TrEMBL record:
The keyword Acyltransferase does not apply. Keywords: Flavoprotein, FMN, Monooxygenase, Oxidoreductase. PANTHER family: ALKANESULFONATE MONOOXYGENASE-RELATED (PTHR30011), C2H2 FINGER DOMAIN TRANSCRIPTION FACTOR (EUROFUNG)-RELATED (PTHR30011:SF16). SUPFAM superfamilies: Bacterial luciferase-like. Belongs to the NtaA/SnaA/DszA monooxygenase family. It comes from the Bacteria. Gene3D superfamilies: Luciferase-like domain. The keyword Transmembrane does not apply. It holds the Pfam family Bac_luciferase. It comes from Caballeronia grimmiae. Residues 22-384 form the Luciferase-like domain. This is Monooxygenase. One of its GO terms (molecular function) is monooxygenase activity.
Length: 442
C-alpha cells in the first residue's frame, strides 16, 4: 500500500445531520447509554478504522429542543471504550481555555496507560459563547487570547508528560527502591497564564505524548497546527479548498522544522449512501426536509459570534454583505470563513444555506453509491487534498453500517486501506514517531 488512507469515525449524537436523530435508521438508545458508543467503536474497529473521535461543547446548545443533545462527557467515555476495544485509536476533545494543564496532562496520560497507547487529544480553545459563563467568565474570551493561552497550555502539558524518564520506575522490592528521583524532574513553568511546578504524578504515557489533534483553520489556528498538531481535522466544501489547505499546512509544518509526515490531514466527509444514486439522494433530501429552520439560524448565529440572521429573508439570494467579516468573529473564525466563501461562490438563499449546513456544518457532504463514495475518497487522497478522512455518517448507526459494509471493502480491494492493523498504538496507525524526551537520555 503506497499511500494508505486513514479513516477516523466522528461520533456525533445519532448522526451528523441535524435531523439524523429523527430518521428510522437512527438509534433509539439514550445518548447516555455507553453501549451505544461501544457498539459504534467496535464496528469501526472491526473495519480497521484508525480511530474514533468524540467532540465536545461546554454548554447546552440553544437548539437542544430540536436536536439530539446531552451526550456523555468524552474523556470518561474513552476510559470505558478502552476496555471494550483493543486496537482502534480513541480521541477526545478537551479545552485549553476552561481547564488546567496539570489536570488535563494527568487525565490523558492516565487514558494512554489504560488503553496501552491508543489515545489522542483534540485541542480546542472553545469558541462556543455559552461556555464562558459556565466557568465564571461573564464574557467570552477573545480569539487571540484563547490561542495565546493554548500555546502556553501545550508547553506546560508536554513538559509534564516529559517530566518522567521512561525508565524512572525501578520497582525493586528487594532493595526497597521504587523510583529513581534523578529520572523525574520539576518543570517550574511560569508564563502569563499558567504557573505549574510539576512533575506530573504518574509516569510518562506509553506513546510519549498522546497524539495531538487540532481542528482550527483560521490563520492563528493554522499556525498553531503547523507547530503542534500531529493530526488535523478540517472542514472544506470543495476539493480545491482542501488542496490549498493541505499544501499550506504541510508547508507550515516544514517551516516549523517538521516533516510533512509529522502531520496527518483529515477533512470531514459526510456521505449519504444508497444502493443507487436516486436512493442516496432521496435520503439526503428527506433529512433536509425535516430540519428545523430555528436550529439552523441559531447555529449560524453561534458560528458568527451571536450575529442575528433572523431578519434576512429565507428565500432571497445571499451576499457576503449579509455576513460579518470572518476575521472579526470571536467565535469559530475558520468555519465562518468557509461559510462566507460558499456564499460568495454560489449565492444561495438563506433557506438553502441552512439546509447545506445542516448536513455537516461546513464539512464536505455528498450522496451516492458505495462505489461513488470510494471514488471521491480515492480522488481526494490522490490529489493531495487529504491523508484520509474524518468520517461523519449523517445517521447513526445505519449509515456507518453502509460505510463499513460497502465502502471500506472497495477501498481495501483497491489497496487504499488496511485489511488488518499493523500497529498497536494510535501513533502507529497514523505513522507518527514516538516523541523523544528532551530532558533525559535513554
Amino acid at each position: 500500500m503506497a499511500r494508505p488512507i486513514h479513516l477516523n469515525l466522528f461520533v456525533h449524537g445519532r448522526g451528523h445531520h441535524e435531523a439524523g436523530w429523527r430518521h428510522s435508521g437512527a438509534t433509539r438508545q439514550a445518548l447516555t447509554d455507553i453501549d451505544y458508543f461501544r457498539d459504534l467503536a467496535v464496528r469501526a474497529e472491526q473495519s480497521r478504522f484508525d480511530s474514533v473521535f468524540f467532540a465536545d461543547a461546554l454548554a447546552l446548545g440553544d437548539g437542544a429542543q430540536f436536536v439530539a443533545s446531552g451526550a456523555l462527557e468524552p474523556i470518561t467515555t474513552l476510559a470505558a471504550l478502552s476496555q471494550t476495544t483493543s486496537r482502534i485509536g480513541l480521541i477526545a476533545t478537551a479545552s485549553t481555555t476552561y481547564t488546567e494543564p496539570f489536570n488535563l496532562a494527568r487525565q490523558f496520560a492516565s487514558l494512554d496507560h489504560i488503553s496501552r497507547g491508543r489515545i489522542g487529544w483534540n485541542i480546542v480553545t472553545s469558541w462556543v459563547g455559552g461556555a464562558g459563563p459556565n466557568f465564571g467568565y461573564e464574557q467570552q474570551i477573545e480569539h487571540a487570547e484563547r490561542y495565546a493561552r493554548a500555546h502556553e497550555f501545550l508547553e506546560v502539558v508536554t513538559q509534564l508528560w516529559d517530566s518522567w524518564a521512561d525508565d524512572a520506575i525501578v520497582d525493586d522490592a528487594s532493595s526497597g527502591r521504587f523510583l529513581d528521583p534523578a529520572r523525574v524532574r520539576k518543570i517550574g513553568y511560569r508564563g502569563k497564564f499558567h504557573r505549574v511546578a510539576g512533575p506530573l504524578n504518574l509516569p510518562r504515557p506509553p506513546q510519549g505524548h498522546p497524539v495531538l489533534v487540532q481542528a482550527g483553520s483560521s490563520a492563528t489556528g493554522k499556525a498553531f497546527a503547523a507547530r503542534y498538531a500531529e493530526a488535523v481535522f478540517t472542514a472544506h466544501l470543495t476539493k480545491q479548498s482542501a488542496i490549498d489547505f493541505y499544501a499550506e499546512l504541510k508547508a507550515g509544518a516544514r517551516a516549523a522544522g517538521r516533516s510533512e509526515q509529522d502531520i496527518v490531514i483529515l477533512p470531514g466527509i459526510s456521505a449519504a449512501i444508497g444502493s443507487t444514486e436516486a436512493e442516496a439522494s432521496a435520503l439526503l433530501d428527506e433529512l433536509d426536509s425535516i430540519t428545523d429552520v430555528s436550529v439552523g439560524l441559531g447555529r449560524l448565529s453561534n458560528r458568527f459570534g451571536g450575529y442575528d440572521f433572523s431578519t434576512l429573508p429565507l428565500d432571497q439570494p445571499l451576499s457576503v454583505d449579509d455576513f460579518p467579516d470572518p476575521s472579526t468573529v470571536q467565535a469559530a473564525q475558520s468555519r465562518a470563513a468557509v461559510i462566507t466563501q460558499l456564499v460568495a461562490r454560489e449565492r444561495p438563499t438563506l433557506r438553502s444555506l441552512l439546509r447545506r449546513l445542516a448536513a455537516a456544518r461546513g464539512h464536505f457532504t455528498l450522496s451516492g453509491t458505495p462505489e461513488q463514495i470510494a471514488d471521491v475518497i480515492a480522488d481526494w487522497a490522490e490529489s493531495r487534498a487529504a491523508d484520509g478522512f474524518n468520517v461523519m455518517p449523517p445517521v447513526l448507526p445505519a449509515q456507518l453500517e453502509h460505510f463499513t459494509e460497502h465502502v471500506v471493502p472497495i477501498l481495501q480491494s483497491r489497496g487504499l486501506f488496511r485489511r488488518e492493523y499493523e500497529a498497536a498504538t494510535l501513533r502507529g496507525h497514523y505513522g507518527l514517531a514516538r516523541p523523544a524526551n528532551p530532558h533525559f537520555k535513554s
